[in-house]
């Protein structure tokens, strides 16, 4: 008996065991009997050839060994959406219902209170209770009968349709159009066809807020065409789609707050300019996109760009950024508060990771979170003071001066250190005695001469101590305990800078070294309890 083949089999997605593929040929094969399906597999290792068999090219594959022939009875063409829901949540007549306590029944992972489940009406009530539905890897291939979903699942808001057998965006529209208040939709890992020309706009996604299209082979052009039907979309996930070129979104994606383009090898960093005017974009994820530089050419040194006006969170980790100029450019973003930049060649330019972090903090004025770690006010102050000292000699040599009228640093210096003038305004120009330069890290250079006082014990004479700048606050407390016999758990430390009179800074983190707080020789440590 010949296995049944759907009339629209060509181009359909199928599964065979754990393997997924697309039907590229339906018909006979020379010197064999019956109908065969020529399948291009997602995993090329599953295949045997490129669609050519005994000299005849039956179909084409992207990979030279990505295809093979299978009999139709080996291919799973999938089920409709509602069947998948009933199977997944144990509401199918064919499946055993797993009963819980006296008044409950367990549907998959969900426990719902009810009495009895023999009637169709009771089954209907249980389906109507489902709000958050996941049918991941349930072989969904089509919507099913018209309006059946809207009659059966009236309260659905969030749907996970990832890794199924959906062949086209039209199928997604058919399902979504029957879900009145759809807010979240994940159709990732479905290799499907998207419209290539402008089509009539569907109202299926009129309330959609979150959409995931990872690993769907969608292009940016197709994104913009489909986006005409996403009037309220706030989050769009597009990772791993081989998107290389971006185009300017005209009258679409205006409500978008988050865009994930990770794992797409963009042509260059300038591709970002065409999406730079999305008015509400707050989070941009560009992990592993191959970018090597970032530039905002509309703004000069120390000025803010008009690009990405609302961008608060940026992820550029796992890229090819090697120059500090890209970090300088990020200070031009008016709203940037959080940055992820790990695993870039730039991270190898400094041997000391603490120094690297301090430089990034000092270069980006409004940053509050770096690589998922909060930047404390004391950390920012220390980073900025250190930056001001380290590059002070370069500033003087480039034309910087303590006298504002004579202060004219060169264009080259300002290009390398665009924040330096504002740091001088904030803390004052560095004095000659505090200019550090980049000194070799000998023990002599690392020792701090500090005066230690106990304000609560005026009879106690101040003590002078030489301490390594790498010594943690916890170890300093241990030393002072032996000196003053004050328990470390009760001890509170702060210091007064010899350069900033009347300003006292609390040493509030036991795990941080003295250098974290920018303490210098000549400063006074105050001990209280």
From TrEMBL:
One of its GO terms (biological process) is cytoskeleton organization. Keywords: Acetylation, Chaperone, Cytoplasm, Cytoskeleton, Leucine-rich repeat, Phosphoprotein, Repeat. Transmembrane segments: none annotated. CDD domains: Ubl_TBCE (cd17044). InterPro entries: CAP-Gly_dom_sf, CAP-Gly_domain, Leu-rich_rpt, LRR_dom_sf, Ubiquitin-like_dom, Ubiquitin-like_domsf, Ubl_TBCE. Its main location: cytoplasm. It is found in: Cytoplasm, Cytoskeleton. Belongs to the TBCE family. Supercomplex made of cofactors A to E. Cofactors A and D function by capturing and stabilizing tubulin in a quasi-native conformation. Cofactor E binds to the cofactor D-tubulin complex; interaction with cofactor C then causes the release of tubulin polypeptides that are committed to the native state. Cofactors B and E can form a heterodimer which binds to alpha-tubulin and enhances their ability to dissociate tubulin heterodimers. Interacts with TBCD. This is Tubulin-specific chaperone E. It comes from Mionectes macconnelli. The lineage of its organism: Eukaryota, Metazoa, Chordata, Craniata, Vertebrata.
